[in-house]
């Protein structure tokens, strides 16, 4: 989730249990601690572009790390901020722990994948109920926190946290409706999917991207789950077959290893780029939900040495045309 949402959610929980005289400082500690786990984005390597994919939402986002992460936050924030406001270290740690504890669970509500139980498992949990940015989720929490802080009313923070529980629940209902529509569409096409997922499109829980896998292909479609279901048929692409698509690739090379790392990150949803024969895309994400215009990919090179990593690329096709297509779907056009 975006840093603002992570921060205000952490602040809403810490303010919910605070006394009136501690409302502001509780909110500040919850806000900063709620954003702290995303400091893992600093773990990067110039020589290994996929390293950050392995560490983002890993140990800092594990539920087992909450006691450690919250203590670290308190050790930094208590002498800098809270001690001057009259809080004990125990109080500072409590507010930091509450803020820190919200982060990983909120990230798991998105589609990216969060390693909630690392180091016991590196499975990435993605409940696909909220987009990584969604104003309808964030703005009510923010506004309620502003009023709670200005008026010194903790119960408004509690309402904010309640909204943070209600909205993903609505997203779960919408996700299930979109998945049901996807299964029906596959049946009409006489396909038997081996797996099917529905993910919210950008900044809403009305229009969903449905991706399903058959024996040899991926199909992407958009579903508008309003008062009635509307389908926007999309595109398909052959599943990645490394031996077929890259017959020159040494299976013991670093590039071959990187493909498997990228496969783990993408939950296996990999395909050869439709217009770039040296690139592999993550089929799950695009601005327009019924298109294969991937948000990120890796690029191989037949000239690379055995120990050379792949190239990692991001694609932000946030053009006026793509925004208009998504907006039309939101309107049901």
From TrEMBL:
GO molecular function terms attached to this record: hydrolase activity
Record key words, sorted: Hydrolase, Membrane, Transmembrane, Transmembrane helix
* Lineage: superkingdom: Bacteria
**Positions of transmembrane segments:** 23-43, 63-81, 93-113, 125-148, 155-173
One Pfam entry for this protein is: YdjM
The answer on whether this UniProt entry bears the keyword Ribosomal protein reads: no
Protein name stated in the entry:
Metal-dependent hydrolase
What organism, scientifically named, is this protein from? Vibrio gelatinilyticus
């Amino acid at each position: 989730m975006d840093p603002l949402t992570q921060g205000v959610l952490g602040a809403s929980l810490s303010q919910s249990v605070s006394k009136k005289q501690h409302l502001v400082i509780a909110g500040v500690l919850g806000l900063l601690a709620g954003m702290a786990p995303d400091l893992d984005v600093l773990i990067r390597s110039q020589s290994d572009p996929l390293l950050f994919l392995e560490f983002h939402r890993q140990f800092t986002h594990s539920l087992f790390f909450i006691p450690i992460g919250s203590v670290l936050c308190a050790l930094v924030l208590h002498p800098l901020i809270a001690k001057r406001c009259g809080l004990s270290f125990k109080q500072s740690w409590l507010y930091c722990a509450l803020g820190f504890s919200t982060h990983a669970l909120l990230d798991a509500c998105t589609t990216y994948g969060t390693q909630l139980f690392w180091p016991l498992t590196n499975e990435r949990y993605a409940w696909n109920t909220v987009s990584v940015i969604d104003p309808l989720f964030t703005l009510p929490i923010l506004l309620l926190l502003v009023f709670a802080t200005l008026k010194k009313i903790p119960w408004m923070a509690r309402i904010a946290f309640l909204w943070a529980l209600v909205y993903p629940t609505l997203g779960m209902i919408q996700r299930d409706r979109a998945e049901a529509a996807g299964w029906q569409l596959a049946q009409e096409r006489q396909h038997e999917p081996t797996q099917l997922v529905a993910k919210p499109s950008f900044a809403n829980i009305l229009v969903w991207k449905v991706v399903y896998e058959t024996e040899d292909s991926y199909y992407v479609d958009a579903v508008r789950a309003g008062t009635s279901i509307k389908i926007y048929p999309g595109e398909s692409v052959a599943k990645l077959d490394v031996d077929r698509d890259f017959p020159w690739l040494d299976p013991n090379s670093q590039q071959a290893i990187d493909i498997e790392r990228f496969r783990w990150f993408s939950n296996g949803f990999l395909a050869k780029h439709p217009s770039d024969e040296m690139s592999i895309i993550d089929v799950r994400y695009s601005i327009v939900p019924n298109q294969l215009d991937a948000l990120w990919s890796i690029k191989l090179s037949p000239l690379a040495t055995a120990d050379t990593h792949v190239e990692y690329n991001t694609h932000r096709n946030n053009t006026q045309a793509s925004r208009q297509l998504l907006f039309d779907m939101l309107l049901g056009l």
